[in-house]
Design brief:
The complex is a heterodimer. By secondary structure, chain A is of the alpha+beta class. Chain A contains 3 helices and 11 strands. In chain B, helix 22 links the parallel strand 19 and strand 20. Chain B starts with a helix and ends in an 8-residue tail after the last helix. The chains are: A alpha+beta, B alpha/beta. Chains A and B meet through strand 4, strand 5 and strand 7 of A and strand 17 and strand 18 of B.
């Protein structure tokens, strides 16, 4: 490939990334509740949302890993976000859902208390994570504001990272 | 560029195959130096590689093979007798050739390997003066070629161009021949050493070359060539029938994965079929469904076997390199040894064939170095001077056995123990308890080496350890037998394939685990009295062996909530050379399972090899037997019997009594509620068996009785009762059937599943109330 062609492609890429970072750009998120707080993840990272199904416990794992479940032939880990976020485990009820999140090859199911809604947020309405929890290790990507509500936007990549 | 890559790929694949065969042939040649067929075959290999490499401009490789060819050509014409020294040089050159091929594969160039020394040696043998120019340009090579040819055939000295042309044609021709042969080998057919067609090709140079100076002998040679041609078709026919095709391994892997999914679906179908059968007994469509299910299951099994076969390779592919290895070791160690091969045609999955090579190298080296004695020692012991190592493969059930026997000095159990104690591998106490067989297994311990001196061959104490790890990786079992002074026999038992395996499903409490059947030696049912505790570890005396035991629940942190009966099952696991007894609550059965990874998030959980999906759609974890054995060492025995039975609280008021109502009809639940409400007891409702079970498991209430309908969706009353009775704490919970089923057999089933009372609908409120009162021991003072 000629260098010129590469240059042009690079330029185009730069343009793309510039336009994304534009403040009017809208992000689509799905909100959900864990405990008392409302959280959100980008809609494109969600493979699907299902009602609770049975799972198999996996030994030698931290308490927040409930086990594995069968999603149409694939064996997928199931993580209880309540326990992961330091809350007490709660019995699953009518509103409990499994969020199946995917990023790259990593897939995992997350137990959440209740779905709220899909929402569109302007980039401008998303603030940075508080300094105390910001940084590469943080699971928080930013804080969104809409109609007086505050949403914590989670880093899916971090959630899918094994940390034990 | 792409075209070149394609040619290069073909060249590499072909060359590696040829070279592999070469090793074996050469060793055989040393034994029969007069075997012209063999010589011709070897010569052709060198020649083919040379032809192709010169075409691809690999000058160093061309240079090397050219000189090999010279030497072999001389031998072929009887000008040279191949003795051990010459063979060493030839073998060395073949090693270099391999090295070059590897370099070419990795870098697409043949630089970086020094062949000069070897070429000089070769040249000396072929009678040259040792004046070999360092290659790079092609020119000096051509000069060499002529000078070499000069000595054997003056006629050939003629025209350079003719010579080059012949070379080219010959190379082309040989390549075709070899491709055919390789295809045949790949098809698993034994190929005659020298099929007639190459010999026809061999004649060609002579046929054409002499033309220039003397046309006279051509006629006779032609006749010869024609003879060869006439002979050719007969042997060609099978080649035409055996059609083969080269397939990318990735495609086969993909096919295997798909079959895996199909097997899971089949398992599921069978399970559903069973359920349907139970539910709609006697219905006509059942038979049809049955037929379809059995056809699907039959075809799936056949398909699985067929695909497995496409991945099978004869183990001869691995065995081939050993004659050469033994030969080298014979010279290196100054011992006399022979290798006997048997069962090279036995087939194994490709992935296993690849893994098995290294362990075998170590075992055979070990046999040569430590097993076989020096010739003088052997003679003194009244054995033949030459030691024999037998390498044998055969099928045994769903596994393949590779057996390595030697008639050497055998293993000395006492010596092994002493050595292990000295090295701190075992304690003296352990040594005393060890059987001979366990002592033999010590050679696989890391850091163990019995050779007094470390040689380049073995004795660094890593080899046999590697063997054990590799065989365990394949879920294989190692068995050693040895008689002092007579020899040692090692048996490696390896499952045929890794992707789809037979597993034993075991139950512990409510959980199920799958254990690869290849690692299961036997299962026994024992009474708890038979388990002894020695130094905080449970052991079992099984026949004349002491087996250490571990409870699967202790390893996998399973909570003990269910009733444990007087008897337990012990699954005796064998892996590599060790054994252990695994205590489980129940044996569920044997099932074909497909190993699925749990993803990076849960990779590498100790003791778990993966997961599989069962017939009911649930996930079952697969036990990693090697890891389990390791974990078992750190687990302390826990008491099998749980004494802590739940103490029931004293009832102080009517609402302390809790009764569960299980019925799918809301009206029926309402009727029962109305009948019992006057008593003042607490009532909990569930709409089917599964819900009821879930409520029980949550443990929010302590139930005193349950009213159970029989006819319910998802889980009926009988199954519910059976499930409940499995729990320790609900063993004595009174279950009262409330149903419209009035048949005697229904009543019988109710009793069998553990129901204490059987109320038929319709019933009076008072009757129901009195039955409940009786069963919960309702205190009369609470009656208002």
């Amino acid at each position: 490939m000629s260098d010129k062609l590469k240059e042009i492609i690079n330029k185009q890429k730069k343009k793309d990334s510039l336009s994304i970072s534009h403040l009017d750009e809208v992000v689509q998120l799905v909100g959900f509740i864990i405990g008392e707080e409302e959280y959100a993840v980008p809609i494109l990272t969600i493979q699907e949302i299902i009602k609770p199904i049975s799972w198999t416990r996996v030994p030698q794992t931290p308490a927040y890993i409930l086990g594995v479940f069968n999603l149409r032939g694939s064996v997928i880990p199931l993580i209880d976000l309540r326990v992961k976020f330091g809350l007490k485990a709660k019995k699953h009820n009518e509103e409990t859902r499994f969020f199946v999140l995917k990023q790259g090859n990593e897939v995992a199911g997350f137990v959440i208390d209740r779905l709220t809604m899909a929402l569109r947020l302007k980039k401008g309405d998303i603030g940075a994570a508080p300094d105390s929890v910001a940084g590469d290790d943080s699971k928080i990507d930013g804080v969104g504001k809409q109609d007086g509500r505050i949403l914590t936007i989670l880093k899916v990549k971090k959630l899918l990272e094994r940390d034990f | 560029m792409d075209e070149f890559q394609e040619i290069l790929q073909d060249f590499l694949v072909e060359s590696f195959e040829l070279v592999e065969k070469l090793d074996e042939d050469l060793v055989e040649l040393e034994a029969n130096p007069e075997d012209l067929e063999l010589l011709n075959g070897i010569f052709r290999v060198a020649h083919t590689v040379k032809g192709a490499s010169s075409f691809l401009n690999f000058d160093v490789l061309t240079h090397l093979t050219h000189h090999m060819e010279d030497v072999l050509n001389k031998a072929r014409h009887g000008d040279l007798i191949i003795d051990a020294n010459i063979m060493d040089v030839i073998l060395e050159s073949i090693d270099l050739m391999k090295e070059l091929l590897v370099t070419i594969r990795d870098t697409s160039a043949d630089a970086g390997v020094d062949v000069v020394e070897c070429v000089l040696k070769l040249d000396k043998i072929s009678g040259g003066d040792g004046n070999v120019e360092i290659p790079i340009s092609v020119a000096p090579v051509v000069v060499e070629e002529i000078s070499a040819q000069e000595e054997l055939d003056y006629d050939n000295m003629s025209d350079e161009d003719v010579e080059a042309e012949i070379e080219r044609l010959l190379a082309e021709r040989q390549t075709q021949d070899k491709a055919k042969r390789a295809a045949k080998i790949a098809a698993g057919e034994s190929v005659p050493e020298a099929p007639p067609e190459p010999s026809e090709a061999d004649e060609k140079p002579k046929e054409v070359a002499p033309k220039a100076p003397t046309p006279v002998p051509t006629a006779s040679l032609r006749a010869k060539a024609e003879d060869a041609k006439a002979a050719a078709p007969t042997s060609r026919t099978p080649a035409a029938v055996e059609q083969t095709i080269r397939v990318d391994v990735k495609r086969l892997d993909h096919l295997m994965n798909l079959i895996g999914e199909l097997v899971l679906a089949k398992n599921r179908l069978i399970k559903i079929n069973d359920d349907v059968e139970e539910r709609y007994e006697g219905e006509e469509f059942l038979e049809e469904l049955n037929q379809v299910v059995s056809i699907v299951s039959l075809v799936t099994t056949d398909l699985q076997i067929a695909v497995m076969k496409t991945r099978m390779l004869p183990i001869g592919k691995v065995f081939n390199k050993f004659p050469r290895m033994i030969r080298d070791l014979t010279r290196e160690l100054n011992k006399k040894m022979e290798l006997e091969l048997a069962g090279e045609d036995t087939e194994l999955d490709k992935s296993i064939v690849e893994e098995i090579g290294d362990p075998l190298v170590h075992i055979i080296r070990n046999s040569c170095d430590h097993g076989i004695e020096m010739p003088a020692v052997r003679l003194a012991a009244g054995k033949s001077e030459t030691g024999t190592i037998t390498l044998k493969a055969y099928n045994e059930g769903n596994a393949i056995v590779i057996q390595i026997d030697d008639d050497g000095k055998g293993l000395d159990a006492e010596m092994l123990k002493a050595k292990s104690i000295e090295k701190g591998i075992i304690t003296e106490k352990e040594a005393d308890l060890m059987s001979d067989k366990e002592a033999f297994a010590l050679i696989f311990a890391p850091g163990f080496s019995t050779a007094a001196a470390v040689t380049s061959v073995s004795g660094r104490g890593v080899g046999m350890d590697v063997v054990k790890t590799n065989i365990e990786k394949l879920n294989g079992i190692i068995d050693i037998e040895s008689a002092l002074g007579k020899g040692t026999s090692l048996k490696l038992k390896i499952p045929l394939t890794l992707a789809i395996i037979q597993a034993l499903l075991v139950g512990v409490q409510e959980e199920h685990y799958a254990i690869p059947l290849a690692s299961v030696l036997e299962t026994v049912r024992i009474s708890k009295d038979e388990i002894f505790s020695v130094e905080n570890r449970s052991v079992l005396r099984l026949r004349d062996e002491v087996l250490s035991l571990v409870h699967i629940g202790d390893i996998f942190e399973v909570e003990r909530i269910l009733d444990s009966s007087e008897h337990v099952y012990v699954v005796v696991l064998g892996l590599g050379s060790s054994k252990i007894g695994l205590i489980v609550d129940s044996l569920v059965g044997q099932e074909e399972i497909v190993i699925k990874s749990m993803g990076a998030y849960l990779a590498g959980i100790e003791g778990i090899a993966g997961a599989t999906i069962r017939g009911d759609g649930g996930v079952t974890l697969i036990v990693d037997v090697a890891a389990l054995m390791h974990m078992a060492k750190g687990v302390k025995a826990t008491a099998l019997v749980d004494e802590g039975s739940s103490t029931t609280k004293e009832k102080t008021k009517a609402s302390d009594y809790t009764v569960m109502i299980v019925d799918d009809s809301k009206t029926d639940r309402m009727i029962m509620r109305k009948s019992l409400e006057p008593l003042g007891v607490t009532l909990v409702e569930a709409s089917d068996g599964q819900e009821a079970l879930a409520i029980l498991k949550q443990g929010d209430h302590h139930f005193d009785a349950m009213l159970v309908d029989i006819e319910m969706p998802r889980m009926d009353g009988y199954s519910l009762a059976t499930e409940i009775k499995k729990y320790n704490r609900y063993k004595n919970l009174p279950l009262i059937a409330v149903t419209s089923r009035t048949g005697k057999s229904d009543r019988m089933r109710g009793v069998e599943s553990g129901m204490v009372e059987y109320i038929t609908k319709p019933y009076s409120a008072d009757y129901l109330s009195s039955v409940v009162q009786r069963n919960v021991n309702f205190k009369s003072e609470f009656l208002s």
